[in-house]
């Protein structure tokens, strides 16, 4: 052994490992890979999303470490293993919150767009300003081992006539994936969260995965769906058709929002279908809308009584709702979901048994135009950076704009029935992981010798 002091050796080894993996060193949390249409833990066990939509404040809910610790602890009790966050500030410090959720076994799906960089249905465009904004968010969250995936858009298409925006979503995914590769980042999946528009289903879903060039396809597709309301069923809700439409799909698909509340209290029976025998072979879980109780009455917890007279100058009160403090479960919804999830433990398929099958999957056919909404030439080239949609047709022209449109603050589900793991791609699971383990072992031997 050398004559180095023990503290100096510990510090050296810590920074060697941080530099080696290029990620924040928090809790030991199993990395997950996307293989074919499924997610897998690194031990080969299939991963299913049991998530919660989490947006305490409009700009960024991942900056208050103590609040995240309180919420993460209750989410762990609930049985959640993921959250979905709609907006973050890439200039803020997220270390504390990401560590808190990692400690609780909770992964994070995060949207890359901001209020000024989102892709617009009314004026579709994809320009340098948007791309730079997306890159800033990815630059930050790629470093966290529990980043599960990123969205390039949320409900961009909100009507059957919005199909013209679809190529811009796909172009954004293409460019973000290329940027991810150029930076040597982990293969964190890049996906889209779609509004549930019957006249675009399953055309939009298939369009997002139909390119022969995989670099132009999404890494995952997700749906905001509120069709299962009250005492519904697998057939009556339309979920049976969602399962059929996902059969043979080549990328993971899951519900990025669900949890209809038109017939309270919510019993979350839809989870039995999603995470049970009816859909576990085709779908990869669901995100429940939402964590905090607000006017729309979807919340699973509250932080205090509603006070419409509360001063907006109080930092942790917005729209009369307290957004900080000890989370108190909203009953019986919280317990109903907790009990439902506790009974649902899909085992899925082992990676060793599935990987060969995954290599045989072929992209779905690109959708042909229909008479009731979808009117896009799916074989046309994707827009290049700086192009926008001409209003006369679905072709693109060089008329880039430099800012997005300013949306109103999201108040809850707006479509459907009522209205972000260290991901490593299949090619990395064996080769790169093995190399990293060998390098880590070398560092370990060096540290032992010191």
TrEMBL record:
EC number: 2.4.1.-
Main location: membrane
Region (Disordered): 363-419
Classification via Pfam families: Glyco_hydro_72
Intracellular or extracellular location(s): Cell membrane
SUPFAM superfamilies given in the database record: (Trans)glycosidases
GO BP: fungal-type cell wall (1->3)-beta-D-glucan biosynthetic process; fungal-type cell wall organization
Low complexity bias (residue ranges): 388-406
Membrane topology qualifier: Lipid-anchor; GPI-anchor
GO molecular function terms listed in the Swiss-Prot or TrEMBL record: 1,3-beta-glucanosyltransferase activity
InterPro entries listed in its UniProt record: GH, Glucanosyltransferase
Entry's Gene Ontology cellular component terms: plasma membrane; side of membrane
UniProt keyword Lipoprotein present: yes
Alphabetical keyword list: Glycoprotein, GPI-anchor, Lipoprotein, Membrane, Signal, Transferase
Superkingdom of the organism of origin: Eukaryota
First-level EC class: transferase
Role: Splits internally a 1,3-beta-glucan molecule and transfers the newly generated reducing end (the donor) to the non-reducing end of another 1,3-beta-glucan molecule (the acceptor) forming a 1,3-beta linkage, resulting in the elongation of 1,3-beta-glucan chains in the cell wall. Involved in cell wall morphogenesis.
Family: Belongs to the glycosyl hydrolase 72 family.
Protein name: 1,3-beta-glucanosyltransferase
Organism: Elaphomyces granulatus
């Amino acid at each position: 052994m050398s004559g180095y002091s023990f503290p100096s050796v510990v510090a050296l080894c810590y920074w060697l490992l941080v530099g080696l993996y290029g990620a924040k060193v928090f809790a030991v949390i199993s990395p997950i890979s996307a293989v074919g249409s499924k997610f897998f833990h690194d031990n080969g066990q299939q991963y299913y999303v049991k998530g919660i939509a989490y947006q305490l404040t409009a700009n960024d809910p991942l900056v208050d470490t103590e609040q995240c610790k309180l919420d993460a602890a209750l989410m762990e009790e609930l049985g959640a293993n993921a959250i979905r966050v709609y907006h973050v500030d890439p200039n803020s410090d997220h270390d504390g919150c990401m560590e808190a959720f990692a400690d609780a076994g909770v992964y994070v799906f995060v949207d890359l767009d901001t209020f000024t960089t989102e892709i617009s249905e009314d004026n579709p465009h994809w320009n340098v300003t948007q791309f730079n904004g997306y890159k800033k968010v990815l630059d930050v969250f790629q470093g966290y081992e529990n980043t599960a995936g990123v969205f390039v858009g949320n409900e961009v298409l909100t009507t059957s006539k919005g199909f013209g925006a679809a190529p811009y979503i796909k172009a954004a995914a293409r460019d973000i994936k290329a940027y991810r590769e150029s930076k040597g980042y982990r293969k964190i999946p890049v996906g889209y969260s779609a509004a549930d528009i019957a006249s675009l289903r399953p055309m939009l879903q298939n369009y997002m995965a139909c390119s022969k060039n995989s670099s132009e396809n999404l890494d995952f597709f997700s749906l905001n769906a509120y069709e299962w309301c009250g005492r519904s069923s697998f057939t009556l809700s339309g979920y049976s058709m969602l399962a059929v439409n996902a059969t043979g799909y080549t990328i993971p698909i899951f519900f990025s929002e669900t949890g209809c509340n038109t017939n309270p209290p919510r019993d979350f029976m839809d989870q039995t279908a999603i995470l049970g025998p009816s859909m576990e072979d085709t779908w990869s879980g669901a995100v429940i809308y939402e964590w905090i109780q607000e006017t729309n009455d979807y919340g699973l917890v509250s932080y205090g009584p509603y006070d419409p007279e509360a001063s907006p100058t109080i930092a942790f009160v917005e729209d009369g709702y307290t957004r900080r403090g000890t989370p108190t479960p909203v009953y019986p919804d919280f317990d109903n979901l907790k009990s439902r999830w506790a009974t649902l433990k899909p085992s899925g398929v082992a990676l060793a048994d599935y990987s060969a099958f995954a290599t045989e999957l072929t992209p779905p056919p690109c959708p042909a135009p229909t008479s009731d909404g979808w009117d896009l030439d799916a074989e046309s080239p994707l827009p290049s950076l700086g192009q926008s949609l001409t209003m006369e047709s679905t072709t693109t022209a060089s008329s880039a704009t430099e800012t997005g449109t300013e949306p109103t603050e999201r108040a809850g589900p707006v479509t459907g029935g009522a209205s972000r793991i260290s991901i490593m791609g299949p090619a990395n699971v064996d080769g790169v992981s093995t190399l990293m383990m060998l390098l880590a072992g070398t560092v370990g031997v060096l540290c032992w010798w010191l």
